[in-house]
């Protein structure tokens, strides 16, 4: 599947939840791991709710580098309220221009797929799911599919 800005905007709309609380974070994290397009032991899965990191599960094949990538992707979503892959495509994958134009640092932000906003209907963005471990397109699709599975399974 070729990722386009239009497709990703549709994915963001499809994943809007009826509710999302601290109690839901564990289940969402587990659904994302189950949706992994590869070995989930290669992934770190993080969920931020508000300003709190409420879920972290690092596979046995991850390192600090995965932590760092997930955090940088998460910052992009927090800044733009769109998935990190959407922001990448919206900036024509020109990272240097993105950093210059937004006054941001590559030390803190990464416009690579793998972080996805958590939206609640009639509320807006309440959190972010960010993963790292696969190629960026697969990280993006894993987040999306995990959110869709969570929404269907738990009627959120």
Account of the protein in words:
- This protein has 6 helices and 4 strands, in the order ααββαααββα.
- With 156 residues, the protein is of the alpha+beta class.
- The chain has a single domain (5-153), classed as Haem-degrading domain (Beta-Lactamase, 2-Layer Sandwich).
- A 4-stranded antiparallel beta sheet has the order 2-1-4-3, with helices on both faces.
- Helix 2 packs across helix 6.
- The relative contact order is 0.23.
- The mean pLDDT is 97.
What are the salient characteristics of this protein?
156 residues, alpha+beta, four-stranded antiparallel beta sheet, Beta-Lactamase, 6 helices
What are the SSEs and their pairings?
Blueprint: H1 5-14, H2 22-34, E1 44-49, E2 52-58, H3 64-80, H4 84-90, H5 95-102, E3 115-120, E4 124-132, H6 136-153
Antiparallel strand pairs: 1-2, 1-4, 3-4
Helix pairs in contact: 2-6
Helix content: 40-55%
Average the pLDDT over all residues and give the rounded result: 97
Q: Strand order across the biggest sheet?
A: 2-1-4-3
Question: Span from first to last CA?
Answer: 26 Å
Task: Characterize the largest beta sheet: strand count, sense, and whether it forms a barrel.
Answer: 4 strands, antiparallel
**CATH class category:** Alpha Beta
Q: Total number of β-strand segments?
A: 4
In sequence order, what are the helices and strands, one letter per element?
Answer: HHEEHHHEEH
Give start-end ranges of low-pLDDT stretches. none
Task: Specify the number of helices.
Answer: 6
CATH homologous superfamily heading: Haem-degrading domain
Strand content: 15-25%
| Whole-number total of structural domains | 1
| Assigned CATH architecture | 2-Layer Sandwich
**Net shape:** globular
Radius of gyration: 14 Å
At CATH level 3, the topology is Beta-Lactamase
Structural class: alpha+beta
Pfam family, one: HbpS-like
InterPro entries: PduO/GlcC-like, PduO/GlcC-like_sf, YBR137W-like
